């Protein structure tokens, strides 16, 4: 169920999504309010679980992670034991930036960030040695056209 947000909440969230490192004074000024009400709203939004972990976005390519693969996985095993083993393997792999279970012909899609194709092959070999997978298709992203963490609130 979607949370009920008023216009001030939306302005605060939009400002925080753009730059969570801003001071409370800066946020209050941008949203047209004073510091105390903004602080109280942020606290309530955290308590409600709307604001989660705050972090820093790093430039993957600047750090040498030049290859982004989207990995399509089909499995013939759907029992709980296989799934638990698969999810554990994914969570232990820092290369996996995102993992989604899908409806349709593909069971899972992974976003994997690595230094190069050789590093992807090492990831792939390690994954299939840990978990039995029916079919894996890897798609190399040639260009990132849009990437955002900002929700359209």
From TrEMBL:
Domain HTH asnC-type: 5-66
Transferase keyword on record: no
Top-rank lineage group of the source organism: Bacteria
PROSITE patterns found in the cross-reference section: HTH_ASNC_1 (PS00519), HTH_ASNC_2 (PS50956)
GO MF annotation terms: sequence-specific DNA binding
GO terms under cellular component: cytosol
GO biological process, one term: response to amino acid
Gene3D superfamilies hit by this protein: 3.30.70.920, Winged helix-like DNA-binding domain superfamily/Winged helix DNA-binding domain
Stored SMART domains: HTH_ASNC (SM00344)
Keywords for the protein's UniProt record, in alphabetical order: DNA-binding, Transcription, Transcription regulation
Record InterPro entries: ArsR-like_HTH, AsnC-type_HTH_dom, Dimeric_a/b-barrel, Tscrpt_reg_AsnC-like, Tscrpt_reg_AsnC/Lrp_C, Tscrpt_reg_HTH_AsnC-type_CS, WH-like_DNA-bd_sf, WH_DNA-bd_sf
Protein name per its UniProtKB record: Leucine-responsive regulatory protein
Originating gene: lrp_2
């Amino acid at each position: 169920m979607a949370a009920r947000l008023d216009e001030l909440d939306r302005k605060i969230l939009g400002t925080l999504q753009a730059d969570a490192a801003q001071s409370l004074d800066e946020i209050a000024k941008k949203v047209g309010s004073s510091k105390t009400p903004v602080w109280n709203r942020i606290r309530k939004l955290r308590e409600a679980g709307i604001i989660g972990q705050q972090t820093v976005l790093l430039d993957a390519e600047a750090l040498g992670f030049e290859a982004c693969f989207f990995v399509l996985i089909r499995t013939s095993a759907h029992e709980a034991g296989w799934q638990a083993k698969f999810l554990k393997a994914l969570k232990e792999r820092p290369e996996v930036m995102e993992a989604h279970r899908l409806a349709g012909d593909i069971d899972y899609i992974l976003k994997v960030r690595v230094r190069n194709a050789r590093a992807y092959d090492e990831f792939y070999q390690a994954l299939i040695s840990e978990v039995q997978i029916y079919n894996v298709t890897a798609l190399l992203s040639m260009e990132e056209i849009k990437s955002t963490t900002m929700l359209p609130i």
